[in-house]
Amino acid sequence: LVGALLARGCPVTVLDNFSSGREEHLTPYRDNASFRLVRGDLLSVDDIATALDGVEMVYHLAANPDVKYCPGDATDKDLEQNVIATYNLLECMRRREIKKLAFSSTSAVYGISDRLPIPEVYAGRPVSLYGASKLSCEALIGAFAHLFGMTCWIFRFANIVGPRVRKRGRTVISDFVEALKRDPRSLRILGNGRQAKSYLLDRECVKAMLHVTSVVERPVEIVNLGCSDWITVDEIATIVGEEMQLDAFERTYTGTEGGWPGDVPRFRLDVSKLEGLGWRAAYTSEQAVRMSVRAVLQSGEQSHAPLEAPCSV
Amino acid sequence: LVGALLARGCPVTVLDNFSSGREEHLTPYRDNASFRLVRGDLLSVDDIATALDGVEMVYHLAANPDVKYCPGDATDKDLEQNVIATYNLLECMRRREIKKLAFSSTSAVYGISDRLPIPEVYAGRPVSLYGASKLSCEALIGAFAHLFGMTCWIFRFANIVGPRVRKRGRTVISDFVEALKRDPRSLRILGNGRQAKSYLLDRECVKAMLHVTSVVERPVEIVNLGCSDWITVDEIATIVGEEMQLDAFERTYTGTEGGWPGDVPRFRLDVSKLEGLGWRAAYTSEQAVRMSVRAVLQSGEQSHAPLEAPCSV
């Protein structure tokens, strides 16, 4: 997103505490006179104020990005890092009369639904604290937009994948790559392998946001952002095996319907609104996953974070 | 609610900070051995812990009840008193393994909708901080219910009216009664008078909650709670005039579509789910309003709170 905005001639300020993003991804822009980095936190109003100086529009992508709830986890992490952080941002924007906001929401706001693919008009019933917090952010943004004359775009992301997404113990692709590097003959899969979801490349996600924010301007526009198909966790395991050129490996399953507490086993977004606005994903979920697997394998990057064990169900 | 539960033989603990409710309403139960009052606040985890001692089910009706946002108001009142208060309650319930929760949500979660009457399945787009906070509470409750095996009933209230609801400067009925007592010849009406909403008597609301919680038990059941018709603010003014036996009075209007920032000018709930569960309001909106006006006039009660000026739009 930073690269794309700079390429369009927009000066960019990044506010990040690098709790999940990695500063090295910003290295290419470090010497660009139009680029400014504020190391800070949305829980600090002072940090936000510093970052908002001179800003016309905010892309709010900051969050606790982990959908999983593991027994023993704090239950207020998403309330604090997503809801209160978003409130802090909105209030600072209001005081500075900054009127435009694009927000990364999530398909997790829909929860478990009988209606698949699901269009934006149906109510979300999130089953995770993460999904609940994102729906809360959406509601707050909508109220601020209405009360204070803002223009807001809310994007409900599919699973966003690519070479630079979080690694090791946090996403299915990096999990499988790491696990099969350690033991190429067997793979443990959370759930029953039949969880089916939609995947979109990170650079496609950026393109879609920039497209939508340029073609439509209303107080609040909520848009499902993904592709129209899905693939299963089992299919992802097969792709990873193929790209690693492994022989057949044994699969074991934890066996539950979802991969973890709060997981939505099956979701598919109705993207007709997005397509009606003139944007369509260039790749299927299968292609996006395969390209991400290749990128992860080629980069050979190691995570800087310690391996986080996925919680058992 | 307290009276109805005691009449059914349930011991009742009330936790209230009396920021909007009035302690005198509890006087009839004060000497009942099954009744316990905890003066306290949901922002205090200790107060909640005291109140939850020995409790099997919680009716969570506590909130900042004021839907209005007036310029200059704090923007985090609903976030704190509704969302964080509800989180505190949920977390205390989780730690104590209290599994049943009935929650007073609101028709304000729907915001301004083209679909009237609106059923539960459609997404809310709240236009007030109050509505946004209640939708956030719903989402939090849903996630807790799913993750921690709770059984929750979420009631989206119509406008609840009756002799004991908040007075003076806070509700349309008490506003009109007070204003016409001061000056029986003219009435200033917020908005254009054509705002149309549904009204339900408080005692009917209690009956409906007790009915629904007794006939259905799922992790999360969301139910619109009201009647199927609506009346306008102008019609309410007429009813108040009739019940006060006034001659015709002059009406002036602030003229906006909604009565105040964040007001939803027209709403009507689809109550087919409620009716399908076997409960139907005994009175129309017009009857409920008329009965409330009579009760307010008969009680002749004066508010203990100072008159709060409604904010201009």
Q: What does this entry look like structurally?
A:
In chain A, the strands form five sheets. In chain A, strands 3-4-5-10 form a four-stranded parallel sheet, with helices on both faces. The first copy, chain A, has a two-stranded parallel ribbon with strand order 1-2. In chain A, strands 6-9 form a two-stranded parallel ribbon. Chain A is 35% helix and 17% strand. In chain A, strand 4 (100-106), helix 4 (129-148) and strand 5 (151-157) form a beta-alpha-beta unit. Chain A is α/β, with parallel strands linked by helices and 313 residues long. Chain A contains nine helices and twelve strands. Chain A has helices at residues 2-7, 45-52, 77-96, 129-148, 172-182, 202-215, 233-243, 272-276, 285-299, and strands at 12-16, 35-39, 57-60, 100-106, 151-157, 159-161, 186-189, 196-197, 199-201, 220-225, 231-232, 250-253. Chain A binds chain B through residues 69, 75-76, 79, 83-84, 87, 90-91, 94, 109, 111, 120-129, 131-133, 135-136, 139-140, 142-144, 146-147, 220, 261-262, and chain B through 69, 75-76, 79, 83-84, 87, 90-91, 94, 109, 111, 120-129, 131-133, 135-136, 139-140, 142-144, 146-147, 220, 261-262.
